[in-house]
């Protein structure tokens, strides 16, 4: 049994203008999506990779977010070479079908590579350390000319699901016209790899301490969606990436309730 508690987040007035105060009689069906909290160790703590989305985006325009996106139907391709927890285990963690679990993990790997250049793949025991040779494949993945399964097969690579951890499952509130059932993963930046901002979906990208990202949002220098804010706040409790990766979390499906009040939104979480 869930008990709702009220938490408030500030969003720009321009965002509120398009947000209905009440959900429609028939809310849009959420689209499955995968998002990755990419972490690295720095002196005195951890940093997370964040991107500020361009204002032309149809969803979360101008927001500061983690890399991620919608599931492509080809992400469920069972031919993907796979190492680590199998789709059946991910299905248990996320409470979904095995086919969807496979697609979610593949989408997490694909979106992370497309949006940050970080590739969670390699051999059964080693991870890619230099992704520069896959630049053309990255572009082809973005344009959907190439599927993740075909890319990995052609490059002789294996998807490394052991580099990911389940973290959260948030569903976009019913008021939003574009809704997502987003599963959030945790991953450490692989040794030797560099995260970049070479994506047309973001106007800027970079590493930031979770507490600093929250401070920027409070000061109005950036805008965070409630799930992003909530998870950044969770990360402030940890001092190393290893500590985060060791966490065993339950992953309930969370659908926030929104109450618009002037310049702010009250977000009620179960």
From TrEMBL:
MF annotations from Gene Ontology: hydrolase activity
Every Nudix hydrolase domain range: 29-233
Cofactor(s) for this UniProt protein: Mg(2+); Mn(2+)
Transmembrane residue ranges: none
Keywords for the protein's UniProt record, in alphabetical order: Hydrolase, Magnesium, Manganese, Metal-binding
InterPro entries: NUDIX_hydrolase-like_dom_sf (IPR015797), NUDIX_hydrolase_dom (IPR000086), NUDT19 (IPR039121)
Name of the protein in its database record: NUDIX hydrolase
Species classification: Bacteria, Bacillati, Actinomycetota, Actinomycetes, Pseudonocardiales
């Amino acid at each position: 049994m869930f008990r709702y508690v009220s938490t408030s987040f500030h969003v720009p007035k321009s965002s509120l203008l398009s947000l209905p105060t009440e959900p429609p009689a028939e809310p849009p069906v959420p689209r499955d999506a995968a998002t990755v909290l990419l972490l690295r160790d720095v002196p005195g703590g951890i940093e997370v990779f964040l991107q500020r989305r361009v204002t032309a985006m149809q969803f979360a325009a101008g927001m500061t977010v983690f890399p991620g996106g919608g599931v492509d139907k080809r992400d469920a391709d069972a031919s993907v070479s796979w190492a680590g927890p199998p789709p059946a285990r991910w299905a248990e963690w996320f409470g979904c079908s095995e086919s969807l679990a496979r697609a979610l993990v593949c989408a997490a790997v694909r979106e992370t590579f497309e949006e940050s250049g970080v590739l969670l793949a390699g051999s059964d025991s080693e991870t890619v350390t230099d992704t520069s040779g896959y630049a053309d494949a990255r572009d082809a993945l973005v344009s959907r000319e190439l599927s993740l399964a075909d890319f990995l097969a052609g490059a002789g690579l294996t998807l490394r699901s052991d580099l990911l951890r389940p973290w959260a499952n948030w569903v976009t509130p019913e008021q939003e016209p574009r809704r997502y059932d987003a599963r959030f993963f945790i991953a450490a930046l692989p040794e030797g790899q560099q995260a970049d901002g070479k994506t047309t979906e973001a106007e800027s990208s970079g590493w930031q301490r979770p507490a600093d990202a929250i401070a920027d949002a409070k000061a109005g220098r950036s805008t965070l969606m409630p799930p992003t804010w909530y998870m950044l706040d969770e990360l402030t409790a940890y001092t190393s990436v290893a500590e985060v990766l060791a966490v065993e979390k339950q992953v309930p499906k969370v659908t926030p309730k929104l109450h618009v009040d002037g310049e702010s939104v009250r977000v009620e979480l179960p």
